[in-house]
Amino acid sequence: MKRDLQGSYTTVSTVGEAVQAFIPAPLPPDPPLVWNAELRDKFDRALVALGRLDAVSVLVPDTGLFLYMYVRKEAVLSSQIEGTQSSLSDLLLHEVNRQPGVPLNDVQEVSNYVAALQHGLLRIEEGFPLSLRLLKEMHAVLLSKGRGSQQTPGEFRRSQNWIGGTRPGNACFVPPPADRLIQCMGALEYFLHDQPEKTPSLVKAALAHVQFETIHPFLDGNGRLGRLLITLLLSSEGILHEPLLYLSLYFKSHRQQYYSLLNHVRLTGDWESWLEFFADAIIATAGLAVETARNLAQLAETDRQRINALGRTAGSALRIQQVLLEQPIVSSGQLAEKTALSPATVNSVLLRLEQLGVVTEISGQQRNRLYSYTAYIDLMNQGTETAENHLSSN
Question: Among 188, 193, 201, 346, which residue has the fewest nearby CB atoms (within 10 Å)?
Answer without folding.
Answer: 193
